[in-house]
User: Which sequence fits this backbone?
């Protein structure tokens, strides 16, 4: 604590500055807690997503009707003629 003198005890901004410093200290503490919580939750979410991805069976795309019909018959008469010439 400072030694009380006429100059230090009666500054009009001293009480306001003290309040501002206290409020900023509280707010900075809350921000630090929020950032720590966010980082902890993000790490937990990423770990769970990685675990779920590893445990999930691989996704095999199904053949669509268009792909099945394209494999069964040629798209044009020229392609049909070409296919018969090759055979």
Assistant:
């Amino acid at each position: 604590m400072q030694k009380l003198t006429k100059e230090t005890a009666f500054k009009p901004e001293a009480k306001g500055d003290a309040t501002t410093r206290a409020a900023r200290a509280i707010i900075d503490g809350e921000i630090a807690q929020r950032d720590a919580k966010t980082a902890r939750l993000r790490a937990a979410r990423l770990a769970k997503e990685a675990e779920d991805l590893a445990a999930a069976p691989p996704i095999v795309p199904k053949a669509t009707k268009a792909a099945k019909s394209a494999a069964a018959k040629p798209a044009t008469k020229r392609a049909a003629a070409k296919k018969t010439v090759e055979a």
The mean pLDDT is 79. The longest helix spans residues 14-55. The chain has four helices and no strands.
